[in-house]
Design brief:
alpha/beta, nine-stranded mixed beta sheet, globular, about 280 residues, Spore Coat Polysaccharide Biosynthesis Protein SpsA, Chain A
């Protein structure tokens, strides 16, 4: 039912300067695989094989990563290094990749609207590569959310409990708990102070959105930080009973911060990296 996934990857990654001065933050490697590839593999695991990237200036490396490198493949063909390309070859063979540029950094809502031409009038996933989500013992987060979308036929956002001293970094939901870990969203607030937060349930970088979100974003005024926030657009959907929040199974690492990136790297190395590779 949901075949497309949008990847907003136009941000500057300033928290990782100087590393991101000339390299996209989404290409930073967690062990030996770039962040964005983890997100693409999660989307494809949910059947979303059409991957649409909203990029910006200096992001050519992302397009190159999801393309064949004939020179490299020729150089390592038949060697012990060739199997190291197996994972990205599988992704390239399975997926379709399209790109559009966000000419101005006007917020996540604006980035999603920029991707409308690549998505069209159909439901779609959204992955923010900064959030690395791993569920070692079960389906990925998008796969879990897809089951809920097929049940409720409305937008679905992933949430997790966060400490109140960090709540100002997130969009935060409140709503009716309809079953364990599942909420019908009644309100959303972008980056509230701890005293004004309606709960400690923070939205993380996984969404399944219905296509009417594009028309809503078009009329959404800039909000927090003077940017067009997807949270504000989802609030309008929520007022019609059209948003479900889901406390997902698995672990999430905030790879948009240096401590979170290091934590993710250590976790992947300890649990998944084949030491003799």
């Amino acid at each position: 039912m949901v075949k497309k996934c949008l990847f907003p990857v136009a941000g500057y990654g300033t928290r990782f300067l100087p590393a991101t001065k000339s390299m996209p933050k989404e290409m930073l490697p967690v062990v030996n695989k770039p962040l964005v590839q983890y997100g693409v593999e999660e989307a494809m695991g949910a059947g979303m094989t059409n991957c649409a990237f909203v990029t910006g200036r200096g992001k050519r490396a992302i397009a190159d990563h999801f393309d064949v490198s004939y020179e490299l493949e020729h150089q390592i063909a038949g060697s012990s290094k060739e199997p190291l390309l197996d994972s990205i070859r599988a992704v390239i063979d399975q997926g379709t990749f399209t790109m559009v540029r966000q000419r101005e950094m006007l917020g996540l809502g604006h980035a999603i609207l920029t991707g409308e031409a690549l998505i069209g009038p159909e439901p779609f996933g959204v992955v923010l590569s900064d959030d690395l989500c791993i569920n070692p013992d079960g389906p990925g987060v998008l796969s879990q959310m897809l089951d809920l979308f097929e049940q409720f036929r409305c937008s679905v956002v992933a949430v997790q409990e966060v400490p109140m001293d960090e709540i100002h970094k997130y969009g935060v939901i409140s709503g009716e708990c309809i079953q364990e870990g599942l909420y019908r969203v009644e309100s959303m607030v972008e980056k509230p102070t701890a005293g004004n937060a309606p709960s400690n349930l923070a939205i993380i970088g996984r969404y399944i959105l219905t296509p009417d979100i594009f028309d809503i974003i078009r009329t959404t005024k800039p909000g927090a930080n003077g940017e067009v926030q997807i949270t504000d657009a989802l609030q309008i959907q929520a007022q019609k009973g059209g948003v479900i929040a889901y406390k997902f199974e698995g672990q999430r690492f905030d790879c948009g911060s240096v401590p979170g990136f290091v934590e993710a790297t250590n976790f992947v190395f300890d649990n998944f990296y084949v030491k003799d590779s």
